[in-house]
Amino acid sequence: MNKARSNPLNSVMMHGALILYTLIALFPVFVILINSFKTRKAIFREPLALPDADSFSTIGYETVMKQGDFLLYFQNSMIVTVASIFFVLLFGAMAAYALSEYRFRGNMLMGLYLALGIMIPIRIGTVAILEMMVATGLVNTLWALILVYTAQGLPLAVFILSEFMRQVSDDLKNAGRIDGLSEYTIFFRLVLPLVRPAMATVAVFNMIPIWNDLWFPLILAPAEETKTLTLGSQVFIGQFVTDWNAVLSALSMAILPVLILYVIFSRQLIRGITSGAVK
Amino acid sequence: MTALSLKNVNKSFGDIHVLKDINIEVEEGEFVVFVGPSGCGKSTLLRVIAGLEDATSGEIHIAGNQVNLTPPSKRGIAMVFQSYALYPHLNVRGNMTLALKQEGQPKAVIAERVQKAANMLDLGPYLDRYPSELSGGQRQRVAIGRAIVREPKLFLFDEPLSNLDAALRMNTRIEIANLHSQLGASMIYVTHDQTEAMTLADKIVVLRDGRVEQIGSPMELYNNPANQFVAGFLGAPSMNFFPAELLGAGGERTMGIRPEDLFIAEDGPLSVQVRHVEHLGGDTNVIARLDGHQITARLFGQHQVAEGENLRLGFKPESTYAFDREGQRLR
Ligand SMILES: Nc1ncnc2c1ncn2[C@@H]1O[C@H](COP(=O)(O)OP(=O)(O)OP(=O)(O)O)[C@@H](O)[C@H]1O
Ligand SMILES: [Mg+2]
């Protein structure tokens, strides 16, 4: 333990700062949660009060459950997010490994080309993407979303992962080659576990924008059976009237799965950092 | 039969020519050490032999078969790396058995070989531990064990001791020497530590800038260096060099004398001023100036020499070496 960290004053200040930050970050979530259990009147009268016997109401949740097939929206969002992250990590890691491990002509150019997407927002190509999806008949399928989100996530994934893979010891990979492991085994069994923190980072970075996205579900998959949670919640937000109970309840339920995914990935992150290194 | 023979091996990385026309023969059971300064291409040469890098040109034969196109796992070699390179997700037993499982060896054979290697290296109590739970010396023994169980025709060691502390390095060095005599296999050992080279080798290959400077037994290289580089590289402290004019001899030659061949003599031909004295107990190293050149003398036993003192040093004429301007030995 170093001196700065064992000093009680420093420790108090550090924890104070962290707790303050946590409160600020959690405050909106807290407000959404408490208000989702209140009547409409109570929400507007005292937005910050906790629900009591008078103001308690589950009307929001009831509306959400009646309106549309929320379980299905839930499932759609989950499938799209998990599948997209899976493909981003798989293809991103493979491309990153090829770029960092093998010497071939145009290696540098290929790396730059793959990283270019970081600077160009994918929404610029929305019209072309829509035309392409129409041509391939993928409109109103979850695949349309998964493909777009995978493309959207790959540049950053390749960029981050190739940087990390360059740091994996050459000796370790070579030991595997001498022991007769195939390139695939070396990739999956030796290299991937060592870059797990980076993979978790990439997953977290990608997960939240995908989960929250409204743009592409609205354009590519607005059908009832492919609606995502974000899109499904929009029915409660009207131009003239907004059903705040329902919106808040839908949001509260939408937070839960991301929270679970986040916990899973951050566990990986920590485990990756603390697992036995090469030397 | 020759265990390894390299014929005109060249290796370039793009424009960088790293290995230049390497010709080396390793006999069966021989312990060959590659030495040379950092960056001279020792590791690259070892990786070319292992098949981890392709030679740009030239032939590589292991146990009589040309292996230029054979993948590393089929060359009958095993390699021990400087950074140990143990698989972090496998325990010691897993690390040692992985290659055998890949080869499809029967379970009984695997168990027996692991047992044998564990006994040889005192690894028995650690078989179920993970690499992160071992000390540096233990990890290095596991890395060696992983090589032994494969029963290769040729062992390749790339600076296996450089991450160990001095005492452990000496023990492990002795262990490797014992291993060589027990197994009787051919070994190639890369180091830039000339003590390791002198003590372990049957044959030393001195490399410099990707070229073989000289090949021979340790004593051959010590007594009969082919050029100034080899003369200066082997032996500690290293050989003294100064222009021949200082001894009154003519010609643009460089004279070389080993520190251990110098002694204090009242009427010696070298008049020096002492700059620094190292008392090692058994020996005394005297570092002195000779007309602007540094000269080191290794005197046996303990001597009282003061800094700043003027001394005269002598030597036997037959213990000098002469080199021409390019550093080639003149005989
Ligand atoms: N992949 C590579 N691409 C380009 N140059 C390389 C590559 N690998 C090695 N080299 C160059 O080849 C030369 C020899 O490197 P090598 O690692 O064989 O040296 P070494 O003798 O093992 O040195 P050390 O004692 O420091 O380990 C160095 O100049 C190095 O810069
Ligand atoms: Mg090296």
Automatic annotation (TrEMBL), chain A:
This protein's UniProt keywords: Cell membrane, Membrane, Transmembrane, Transmembrane helix, Transport
InterPro entries according to UniProt: MetI-like (IPR000515), MetI-like_sf (IPR035906)
One matching Pfam family: BPD_transp_1
Entry protein name: Carbohydrate ABC transporter permease
Location relative to the cell: Cell membrane
Record carries keyword Cell cycle: no
Organism the protein comes from: Ruegeria aquimaris
ABC transmembrane type-1 domain segment(s): 74-265
Annotated membrane topology: Multi-pass membrane protein
Protein family membership: Belongs to the binding-protein-dependent transport system permease family.
Transmembrane domains' residue ranges: 12-34, 78-99, 111-130, 142-165, 186-208, 246-265
UniProtKB/TrEMBL annotation, chain B:
Protein's UniProt name: ABC transporter ATP-binding protein
GO molecular function, a single term: ATP binding
InterPro entries membership: AAA+_ATPase (IPR003593), ABC_transporter-like_ATP-bd (IPR003439), ABC_transporter-like_CS (IPR017871), ABC_transpr_MalK-like (IPR015855), ABC_transpr_MalK/UgpC-like (IPR047641), Mo/tungstate-bd_C_term_dom (IPR008995), NA-bd_OB-fold (IPR012340), P-loop_NTPase (IPR027417)
Keywords for the protein's UniProt record, in alphabetical order: ATP-binding, Nucleotide-binding, Transport
Keyword Endoplasmic reticulum annotated: no
Residues in ABC transporter domain copies: 4-234
Keyword hit for Nucleotide-binding: yes
Similarity section: Belongs to the ABC transporter superfamily.
